[in-house]
Amino acid sequence: MFTGLVSAIGRIASVEGDKSRRLVVDSPYDADTILVGASIAHNGVCLTVTQVEKHGAGSRWSVDVVGETLAKTTIPHWQAGQGVNLERSLTLGDELGGHMVYGHVDTAVRFIGVQGQGEAAHHVFAIDEEYLPFIAVKGSVALDGVSLTVASVSQNQFGVALVPHTLTVTTLGQLQPDMQVNLEVDIMARYAARLTHMRMPGAT
């Protein structure tokens, strides 16, 4: 479980495989604090460390990605050299500064661009209609693992306001139109939508 507060930007060292992938990731985390079996969010995707070693002043680890995860996330587009937002899983006593994020990506959404100026500027994303019921103004979403508040919703789009700090310490500052990011909707929105559906006649 995570909070959507990115603690480091890692870098993809290598990508291997087709129907399943093995990723090697470099990070500034101390290798002595990373255990095999640890859960780490990579651009919002919870992946399990299978190997880890010291690498310079930080660490290098491997993770394996199966077909279901490849189908729902942006991982098939990841390439060696690109940055990824990293967050280590919560431990008891940690501050919950964002919102509850599980690392279970729902879908990938397409960045349209920035609309508006100054404090009214929103980063706007296109979303498939089936996921719109989970998106509400002032609700929470995780985009590439970053906890954000929804600022606007219209038709098949939603917008978020990104402060300069977030643009600096995450990969969201590198977004270009038509790039895709991983979306995880708020768990409360998911359950609310499910309860509403179950109250409908003939629902299963």
Describe the structure.
The structure is a single chain. The longest helix is centred in the last third of the chain and has 12 residues, at 187-198. The radius of gyration is 17 Å and the shape is globular. The mean pLDDT is 91. The chain is built from three helices and twelve strands; from the N terminus they run E-E-E-E-E-H-E-E-E-E-E-E-H-E-H. By secondary structure, the protein is mainly β. The protein folds into two domains: 8-88, Elongation Factor Tu (Ef-tu), domain 3; 107-197, Elongation Factor Tu (Ef-tu), domain 3, CATH 2.40.30. The protein has a six-stranded antiparallel β-barrel with strand order 1-2-5-4-3-6. The chain has helices at 67-72, 164-169, 187-198, and strands at residues 8-16, 21-27, 39-42, 45-55, 58-65, 83-88, 107-115, 122-126, 140-143, 146-154, 157-160, 180-185.
What string, H for helix and E for strand, traces the elements in order?
A: EEEEEHEEEEEEHEH
Number of domains: 2
Distance between the termini: 29 Å
Mean of pLDDT: 91
How are the strands of the largest sheet arranged? 1-2-5-4-3-6
What is the class of the largest domain in the CATH system? Mainly Beta
Structural class: mainly beta
Task: Kindly state the number of beta strands.
Answer: 12
From the 3D coordinates, which CATH architecture of the largest domain would you assign?
A: Beta Barrel
Strand percent estimate: 35-45%
Name the helicity range: 10-25%
CATH topology of the largest domain: Elongation Factor Tu (Ef-tu), domain 3
Stretches where pLDDT is under 50 for at least 5 consecutive residues are: none
